[in-house]
Amino acid sequence: MNTLVIFPSWPVVCRDKACLPAEAQRRHGLVSAYRYNLNTPSVLRFCSFRILFPSLPRPARGGTKKFVPPDISNLFIFTLIFRRTIPGRYMKQYHLLLLFPLFFWACNGSKQDSEFPRQGKGGIYYGGVFRMNETEGIRSLYPLNITDAYSHRITNQIYEGLVKLDQKDLSIIPCIAERWEINDSATSFTFYMRKGVKFHDDPCFPNGKGREVTANDFKYCFNKVCEADINNQGFWVFKGKVQGADEYFQSTVDGRPLPDGVSGIKIIDDYTVQINLKEPFASFLNLLVTPFCWVFAKEAFDKYGIDMREHCVGTGPFFLKTLKHGEAVILSRNTDYWGVDEYGNKLPYLEAIKFTFIPEKRAELLEFKKGQLDMVFQLPPEMYDEVIGELEQVSEELKPYDIQIVPSLSTQFYGFLHTNEVFNNKIVRQAFNYAIDRESICTYTLSGEGTPAFYGLIPPSFKDYEYQKITGYKYDPEKARILLAQAGYPDGKGFPKITLQLNSGGTINIRVAEVMQKQLKDNLGIEVSLNVIPWPQHLEALETGKALFWRMGWLADYNDPENFLNLFYSIHIPKKPDEKSYINSTRYSNPAFDSLLQAALRETDVKKRFEIYRQADQLIVDEAAVLLIYYDENTRLLQPYVKNFPQNPMELRDLGKVWLQPEEAKGAEGGQPGRRTARKKGA
User: Fold this and answer.
1) d(CA 110, CA 647)
2) Which of 92, 330, 360, 673 is buried deepest, with most CB atoms within 10 A?
3) Is residue 451 within 8 Å of residue 442, measured between CB atoms?
4) What is the pLDDT of residue 271?
């Protein structure tokens, strides 16, 4: 016989068979109940029953529940009713069970009440779990191995560097360095660090307590950036720029690392570090916001090594709590974080962040509409008009969610492996570019969520960059056929069957690829098969030169056009063809292009530098170095209770100051508005 131990005034529901109407279940929160098994009297065990509290409020936004203590007078009623139904020899176990809910309430209830919702100065609220989704799995969380946006959006909450980008306008702002000085020739950068910044608590430290960050930690990490290591994809940020970087790299290749590391990285004192460059580079600060320049503890690397791809020890507002590949990543609030806001509130406000990995955009959007996600980034094209229509049919006050749209600092393109015999022919690459109808792809396939790439590689989102002066490719199938014939493949005859490799990207990439596949067949007579593989394998194949033709999108690492042109800088091509080419995966090499880019890097005048960028961009187009498709626009939906989460062209997400407005605080004074007016694309 099984006896359910409950308080008489609390109705009961079983997970398997509901004992209350569904509507009643939805109105009340749930907490665990316990079962006393009379057949096994020595064992008290959890069961699938749950107790429904009629007075318990609905779960707070973001998933945090507010605990309301029960009416303890029911305990005595329970004892009177059930004492005689339980054999005396079992009463000891029964009394222990009876006291457990009181213990749980005393230890846990007040804590839950105090955490969320708890109001801070300036109208903000603490607590809650921010829930978002990624359509692709992560590749690595180790700072020197982060090259994709999916991993960056997670680690950006965990790690920090000397400086970072402002989420509102992408300007460079202080981070662990509270200030810095740059000499007149832009060759020496001195950073003055904050005191009291600590690494996350972790077993790699004595007693598990995170220690303070010093200049020595940045020296250590910057040396790691310049080491020859298969897991280091960040050497390009210092290569050819920082004094001693190339020499130290070569010493690690030779197996005899220089004892002082990179000579251009100098420790002035415990809280001051200086970086000296070989030549002027006015945009050098931009490089320091990349993941490769984040700080992590030597103790962590010594203990975990390459396992740091799944074990993070940073200084950021959140720390890694749970990682289940393909399922979920959970970050928890760093209670020892150094940051405070302008009102003196301790950052961050959120209790946790949860990332899920639903691969289909339609399913992701449906989860958002059901209230299971707090934001969704990029809409499925087939549902774009439906979503916009929903927002336009109601007044501003009644909109079910907010929409944010900005031009993106990203370009979608298909890459060619230039060391391949077929794609080493410029005329073939030009034929491919003329054979594609970019306008129809953006209008019909993407439902307007993109702008045709009629100009250069650099997207038209950079301020003061004159992209209109670049002459790109317009749809001209006749010219494409003429060029292919000149290359020796009339009507596609003799052209080898090729494979286009891509990642799914929530089906958007597949839909575009299928259209491209048809256009290349119809206009050039070229057979193209599609190979859709997971994102980590996709990157591995193109970096190692195993992919000949592939899909890629480049989202800016920092707010400078040089970040796009850097993809074709020949210094990033490894000497051995079987080595990984991390940045220049097309393995494109052109001395004229290299000369232009080098001149731009040395130019301190912004207007002159941008003009050189434009010339280099035009050369990339003329050479048809890649097959440009479209420029992105960033669209995201937010639940209306999400506050202080501005949109930007890089889709840079810093959740350190994001907060969730509780239901009871709706319409209260303070805080920043979350609503934005919906508008059509291109409006």
Assistant:
1) 36
2) 330
3) yes
4) 98
Least confident window among 2-6, 60-64, 427-431, 510-514: 2-6
SS3 322: strand
Element holding 112 (H helix, E strand):
helix 110-115
Identify the residue with better confidence: 196 or 49.
Answer: 196
Coil, strand or helix at 320: strand
Per the listing, tokens 């790690």 go with: 159
For 591, phi then psi, to 5°, come to: -55, -35
The answer to whether 454 and 460 are in contact (CB under 8 A) is no
**CB-based contacts of 501, cutoff 8 Å, min separation 6:** 531, 533, 538, 541, 542, 547, 549, 550, 551
Q: Please count the CA atoms within 13 angstroms of the CA of 80 that sit on its side-chain side.
A: 6
**Distances 614 to 238, 271, 472, 565, 604 between C-alpha atoms, Å:** 24, 40, 12, 10, 16
* pLDDT on residue 116: 61
Please tell me whether the peptide bond between 117 and the residue prior to it is cis, using omega within 30 degrees of 0: yes
Residue 676's alpha-carbon distances to 235, 646, 670, 683, in angstroms, are 41, 10, 17, 14
Measuring CA to CA, which residue among 545, 543, 531, 528 is closest to residue 503? 531
Q: Report residue 71 as tokens.
A: 């009416």
**Bridge partners, residue 129, by sequence:** 352
The letter for the amino acid at 84 is: R
| DSSP letter assigned to residue 277 | B
**Tokens 């004992």 map to which residue?**
19
Residue 30, beta-bridge partner list? 52
Q: How far apart are CA 465 and CA 610, in angstroms?
A: 6
Which residues lie closer than 8 Å to 169 by C-beta, 6 or more apart?
Answer: 648
Per-residue pLDDT tens for 563-595? 999 999 999 999 888 888 989 999 999 999 999
Alpha-carbon separation of residue 275 from 191, 260, 263, 337 (angstroms)? 8, 14, 9, 26
427 three-class SS:
helix
Between CA 589 and CA 567 the distance in angstroms is 11
In this structure, what token pair is assigned to residue 163?
């400086």
d(CA 468, CA 352): 44
319 vs 329: CA distance, rounded Å: 11
Cα–Cα dist 239/400, whole Å: 49
Task: Give helix then strand counts, H and E, for the chain.
Answer: 19, 25
Residue 572 DSSP SS3: helix
For residue 36, which phi and psi values (nearest 5 degrees)? Answer: -100, 115
Both tokens of 490, joined, read 């009339």
**Would you call 222 helix, strand, or coil by DSSP?**
helix
User: For residue 481, what pLDDT is reported?
Assistant: 98
Give the torsion sign (CA, 539, 542, 548, 551).
positive
- pLDDT bracket for residue 497 (50, 70, 90): very high
Amino acid present at 342: E
Cα separation, 35 vs 30, whole angstroms: 16
- Burial of residue 653 (number of CB atoms within 10 Å: 0-12, 13-18, 19+): buried
| CA–CA dist 485, 431 (Å, integer) | 9
**pTM of the complete model:** 0.79
3: amino acid identity, one letter: T
User: Which ranges of 135-287 would DSSP assign to H, the alpha helix?
Assistant: 149-155, 215-225, 245-253, 284-287
